[in-house]
């Protein structure tokens, strides 16, 4: 008969000496502490798991990042006094700030493009009119692709 079975039987418990009862009490206490430690470890694991799942930060609203000027690239020459603004690299169009027929001044930002985690501005090179938008917001663009076609006030090409 093991010690735990002996502790359940009152007749046997009465026959046990002080040392046996003390040993049985210590065994019972140690077993109780082990059970508590396992329970606490399980609770701590659950809390850690809940924190990992619920504690994840929600994606923050996109904060506007100051756009860098687009790197220089040779601008394509088009017929009939028109010129185009081309992209120096592949990326995606983030915002269009002009519409077809819009009168723009030199330096007005016509569109924003993201490439490699950076946002680039494409300003109008001179005063004129937006003749054609060759891209839409969200479009992917390739390097050297024409984005906007402009016509200046006198109908001469804007470079």
CATH architecture of the largest domain: Beta Barrel
Helix content: 25-40%
Order of helices and strands: HHHEEEEEEEEE
Number of strands: 9
**Straight-line distance between termini:** 100 Å
The residue-averaged pLDDT reads 79
Largest sheet: 5 strands, mixed
Return the CATH class of the largest domain.
Answer: Mainly Beta
Principal-axes shape call: rod-shaped
Task: Find the structural class using helix and strand composition.
Answer: alpha+beta
Number of helices: 3
Pick out the low-confidence regions.
none
Q: What portion of residues belong to β-strands? A: 25-35%
Q: What is CATH's topology name of the largest domain?
A: OB fold (Dihydrolipoamide Acetyltransferase, E2P)
What is the radius of gyration computed over CA atoms, rounded to a whole number of angstroms? Answer: 38 Å
Strand order within the widest beta sheet: 1-6-5-3-8
Task: Write a brief caption for the model.
This protein is of the alpha+beta class. Helix content is 31%, strand content 27%.
Structure notes:
- The protein has 159 residues and is α+β, with helices and mostly antiparallel strands.
- It has two domains: 3-54, no CATH class; 68-152, OB fold (Dihydrolipoamide Acetyltransferase, E2P).
- The protein has helices spanning 3-8, 10-15, 18-54; strands at residues 68-69, 82-86, 91-96, 103-104, 109-115, 118-123, 128-133, 140-141, 146-152.
- The strands form two sheets. Strands 1-6-5-3-8 form a five-stranded mixed beta sheet, with no helix packed on it.
- The chain is rod-shaped.
